[in-house]
Amino acid sequence: MRKLEGIFVPNIVPYTEKNRIHEAELRRIVSWLIDKGVSGIYPNGSMGEFIRLSFEERKEVIRIIADEADGRVPILAGAAEANVEAVLEMCAYCAELGCRAVSITGPYYYQLSQDSIEAYFREIAAQSPIDIVVYNIPAFANEISIPILKRLAMDCPRIVGTKDSSKDMCRFLNLLNEIKPQRPDFSFLIGWEEIMVPALLMGADGGTLSSAGVVPEAIMKIYHETSNGNLNEAKRLQFKLLELFNTMVHGLNFPGGFRIGYEMRGFEPGPPRFPLSDHEKNYLNELRERIACMLEECGFAVTLSKKTASETPTQSSEVIQDIVSKVMDKLN
Question: Looking at the domain 6-331, which fold is it?
């Protein structure tokens, strides 16, 4: 089976006014991303707020995306669940839908020993009907140590890759050095935009990058320019997009900043699935203007739906010009 490589997009899940999955809008997002040339789709990751969805809703998200993609791109589906039985049920479901592989984090909430984490992945790998990508995201789940991941890669054929969102380039290099010479078919996906180009240069096979849902054109261009050895252009684009990424990722109530990014590209993300304080609501309104200006200054047309446009506070031209000037100072 083909190796996992390229950019898999961790998409948001849009909601209706009644806070249900907005199927039509989700399908529109998926087809738009595919038309923009992304390598694959990655449902039920952190960007998709899988932890805020029920088990059945997580299944529904994958069903919709698999149906809409219809084999046009591979799907790497999030299958992080609370116990082995639930993970395996999700693995079987994803296999039935024709997904390429599943992504599974280390166990979350409870702190476990590395021995227990290894046993957890070995049990899943022994029974899974679909290939597995081990997802290391220490901010939200137990970290998977390099020795454990190496043993899993060497011993478990079902485990075909890793996604690393630790933001630790030293760790990523050591992973590459420990595993890739012995298992060249093993996929290394980076999960943090700020080190995308360095990771690709050192041997990463691609990434699962949240910004690709907002500016797929730019992320795919960086990927292709780096892969083709056009490093000056790749570095230029990497630096140019840093401010946009940092603004979206560090906003209050993650992934609120990215949902605003989708909104600026013409989609209707719908209401958040978690209550917002008045302070957060005001902050996100300010963030909306900043992200709109950044997207425009990076060359992307900002398109608001009629509904969004009617709800977005109008600022004076002087204020908008001030925001643009500040953004330009940082981009130049």
Answer: TIM Barrel (3.20.20)
